[in-house]
Write a structure and sequence with these properties.
71% of the residues lie in helices and 0% in strands. By secondary structure, it is mainly alpha-helical. α1 packs across α6 and α6 packs antiparallel against α7. The chain has seven helices and no strands. It has one domain.
Length: 173
């Protein structure tokens, strides 16, 4: 197997998470169940909130209506037909960015799980943009826009995380 085939396989794997809603939904479900089980309800709610980045990206695409490159496959759905911003990049930035943030915030997380979340998040965040360009699905501006808008949404969720306080415990007398 040559280097181009290895690269193609890796980029297909990276984009696979965003192409298959079932896979991303499964990852979300596992993470939310874990955080609820560990009594991190606020974090679970904000992780769910991070997935609203997908309809936001679709709304922006519908408003801006930038055409995809001619090399784009026919896999683009009716609701995700346009190019700017890249939904993969935007959603990965918000969802996996917040998951990465949580691995540094939550000190009592299992070390193996923390490592897995960090590795998966960093790997996907680092290479999702390149994968979308290499696969011919997006222009560079779509990728940059996805990262910038995604970062803005991620910072909003982190801000909410820091400002949202649990109700104070009731004193027993």
């Amino acid at each position: 197997m040559d280097i181009l085939q290895i690269l193609q396989n890796q980029f297909n794997f990276i984009s696979f998470f965003g192409d298959k809603e079932f896979i991303l939904t499964t990852i979300l479900f596992i993470c939310v169940v874990y955080f609820i089980f560990k009594n991190y309800l606020k974090e679970a709610a904000l992780l769910i909130l991070s997935t609203f980045s997908y309809p936001i990206s679709l709304g922006l695409k519908f408003i801006l209506r930038h055409q995809r490159p001619l090399t784009a496959g026919t896999k683009a759905s009716i609701i995700d037909f346009y190019s700017f911003p890249s939904s993969h990049v935007l959603v990965y930035t918000v969802f996996f960015g917040y998951l990465l943030y949580l691995t540094f915030k939550i000190k009592k997380m299992d070390k193996l799980l923390k490592f897995t979340f960090r590795f998966l998040s960093l790997y996907l965040l680092t290479f999702v943009g390149a994968s979308r360009i290499y696969l011919g699905e997006h222009w560079i501006k779509d990728i940059v826009g996805g990262y910038v808008i995604g970062l803005g949404l991620l910072l909003t969720i982190i801000f909410l995380d820091k400002k949202w306080k649990y109700p104070p415990a009731k004193n027993k007398k």
